[in-house]
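Course assignment 3, question 2. Fill in each field.
Student: A.L.
Task: Predict the tertiary structure for the chain below.
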Amino acid sequence: MAERKNEEFLDDPEAVEAELYAEDELEAESEADELSIVTKERDDFRDRFMRALADAENARKRSDRDRREAENYGGSKFARDMLPVYDNMKRAIEAIDEEQRAANAALLEGIELTMRELLNVFSKHGIERILPEVGDRFDPQRHEAMFEAPVPNTVAGDIIQVMAEGFILHDRLLRPAHVGVSSTPK
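Answer field:
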């Protein structure tokens, strides 16, 4: 009987070929399914990797920005606390009249040198003075209006008096300049 199966096998080569073709198709389908699963996994891992890479890059940029801000603005509290020292030294220099200047020349020179050194240290650390002049336009980003008064020959919004200088640390306002502002004359 085994002989007969071999004979049948040889008698119908198209059936055998079709059977082999069907097996190859099933095998190809299963390989295609495996390939699509592996491809899907690869794409998922690539997506995760790209997201992790983007998160790491964002964290690096954020830490760089935070470091720069800490370098530039970390001393802003100290700088703000030093402004009254500047104001008091300026008042001391302005309060000395001509008679006292001659009598206390060495003391006055010491105060002026200290004042210049303070301004040099301010400049070294990015602190700049806001020096408005009478007649300049009021800028609410840099000035603080202490009072408003109608003054002849002025336009509303002109600075009519400067009471205190302002200060900026790099691009941030430490203290606005205190000014008097003209209102519309009556």
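Instructor remarks: The CA atoms of residues 52 and 58 lie 10 Å apart. Strands lie at 127-130, 143-150, 159-164, 166-169, 172-175, 177-183.
Grade: pending
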